[in-house]
Amino acid sequence: MSELTLTVMRLGFLAVLWLFVIVAVQVIRSDLFGTRVTQRGTARRGAPDRPQQQQRQSAPPQQRQQSGGRGRRGAPTKLVVSEGTLTGTTVALQGQTITLGRAHDSTIVLDDDYASSRHARIYPDRDGQWIVEDLGSTNGTYLDRTRLTTPTPIPLGAPIRIGKTVIELRK
Amino acid sequence: MSSSTTNTTTISTAGPPSRRNTELAMLVFAVIIPVFAYANAGLALSDEMPSGMLSYGLGLGLLAAVGHLVVRKFAPYADPLLLPIATLLNGLGLVLIWRLDQSKRLAQRAENIGQVFSPSAPNQLIYSALGVALFVGVLILLKDHRLLQRYTYISMAVALILLILPVFFPPRFGARIWISIGSFSIQPGEFAKIIIAVFFSGYLMVKRDALALASRRFMGLYLPRGRDLGPILVVWGMSILILVFETDLGTSLLFFGLFVVMLYVATERTSWIVFGLLMSAVGAVGVATFEPHVQQRVDAWLDPFAAFKTGGSDQIAQALMAFGSGGVFGTGLGQGNSDLIGFAANSDFILATVGEELGLAGTMGILLLYGLIVERGVRTALAARDPFGKLLAIGLSAAFAIQVFVVAGGVMGLIPLTGMTMPFIASGGSSVIANWALVAILIKISDTARRPAPTPAPTTDAEMTQVVRP
């Protein structure tokens, strides 16, 4: 057997031995950081503390849409929770329906005593105008001061009130 | 609910908590490395792939697979690293022993003193199989490690018997640590270390408050009351007796060190460590002054190279030279001259072969693997919810760590040489079997510790009241 092969094997063996040690340490590391911390409802901090569900949908497209993108001029690009336990949460508007309620499959899970489990939804109509519709909630959905009875277009910046939570559409 | 009061944090575990697939991947890795080492050693020794490569690889793989399946079934939340590291060390041990079996020098040496040279690697594979069988047995039969707590005082008696028995058998290689029946012999100290850890944890769990709280403060140290010194004095006396009658420094150091570590962990009092170190120093120096066998060991430690002039045993000198000639990257498997150590080259002195053929890099890797086992044990102790499990996990990992330290230190000339073996790597049935049992108990404790708490039954109060306004 040539000297070279043996040298390569010798160093190769040491390399795989150390690789094992390093992989083992990685396993320990993933054990240490194996918990996921989700903070809910911190009023002091803003966007980074959104609940998991919304995070998935919001982060990258938000920036893309803000710098122009499709849609009419003056169309809202994000939905912002401005009051209530979820204050600071934002969800990018990408043409999908946003459901609000205490049910945990809602887009925005409301932690609010006055909200119903399926409280309201916000969706774009064919022209891209955003519409809010009450889904037969117990305590009602208010746009500004009026209680909704039919699906209503949302003006930019108008507060949508659900229990103690206030939502606005912003550019 | 106002926004100021609700600042809740949800902590959830990411991914599946059991981590059995990680363990499987690591195990595959842990079987491939020794096969690679085997091929390397075979190519270096005889220019061809060794014939037994397939059977050793398959044997190790089979043992690993059995271990993994049993862990999957009986300890699904156990630590994912303990089994792969133990398998890797055992596999590397098999390769190193096989490599020393091929040595012509060792065969010649056995012939010169009128013995038949028999290869140790096949035996070691059988011992490994027995060890894995015991591992499986412990995992299946030991439903809960807290069951061991019931046998606190029985295990004390059993451990004492195991420790005292070798005194009645003839000494082998200068130390009475063997029980030999016919051609079959075991080293009971290896098993006693597990059993005595059970006793110490059961005992200290009950007594730790008395030992920790009833003390006076003096010069920053908590001095225990005189009568609380009782247990440590008894264990100290025991280890001195072992040293005197069995002339084995390793076993004695292991038991006393184990007790001091567990006492410290149980009571959080630094004073026990100070006392322990003082007492062991006094004991060791005292015994070394009048016991010739121990004295001989100390002399060989102080001046290992004197053996070349006086004609004594040159094992330590050869081991030191093996480490030296290995350098940083070693000479390569099968290309060293560590077989010059002669007697016990593949058991007590196997670390010298690692040092010469794998060099500093390989030795550090192996020591880190031992360190990882100990770390996982300590981690298990931290995670365990019951005090007995905590103490037992700490005790077992401390015993493992002390054993590695005592052997490695002895071979490298840091402390006087003792008659203990490197866990998993060294040739020797008792050691391999006992250490597999030790790992099995650690895995069982870690399974209990890491098992997620059962989800509480949903209470009706949790449902929010809906306010209906007209």
How does this structure look, described?
Chain A is an alpha+beta fold and 171 residues long. Helix content of chain A is 26%, strand content 26%. Chain A is built from 2 helices and 12 strands; from the N terminus they run H-E-H-E-E-E-E-E-E-E-E-E-E-E. Chain A has helices spanning 3-32, 52-66, and strands at 35-39, 78-83, 90-92, 98-101, 108-109, 120-124, 130-134, 142-143, 146-147, 152-153, 160-162, 165-170. In chain A, the strands form 2 sheets. Chain A has a 6-stranded antiparallel β-sheet with strand order 3-2-12-11-8-9. In chain A, a hairpin with a 6-residue loop joins strand 2 (78-83) and strand 3 (90-92). Residues 42-71 of chain A have low confidence and may be disordered. Chain B is mostly helical and 470 residues long. Chain B is 64% helix and 4% strand. Chain B is built from 17 helices and 5 strands. In chain B, helix 13 (315-326) runs parallel beside helix 14 (350-357) and helix 16 packs antiparallel against helix 17 (429-450). Chain B starts with 8 loop residues before the first strand and ends in a 20-residue tail after the last helix. Chains A and B meet through helix 1 and strand 1 of A and strand 1, helix 1, helix 3 and helix 15 of B.
Which stretches of chain A are poorly predicted, pLDDT < 50 over at least 5 residues?
42-71
Q: Calculate Rg of chain B over CA atoms.
A: 25 Å
The major β-sheet of chain B equals: 2 strands, antiparallel
Beta fraction of chain A: 25-35%
Ends apart, CA distance between termini of chain B? 21 Å
Radius of gyration of chain A: 25 Å
* SS summary, helix count of chain A: 2
Helix content of chain B: 55-70%
Based on helices, strands and strand pairing, what is the structural class of chain A? alpha+beta
Give the spatial strand order of the biggest sheet of chain A: 3-2-12-11-8-9
Give the SSE string of chain A: HEHEEEEEEEEEEE
- Determine the strand fraction of chain B and express it as a percent band: under 5%
The beta-strand count of chain A equals 12
Structural class of chain B: mainly alpha
Q: Walk across the major sheet of chain B and give the strand order.
A: 2-3
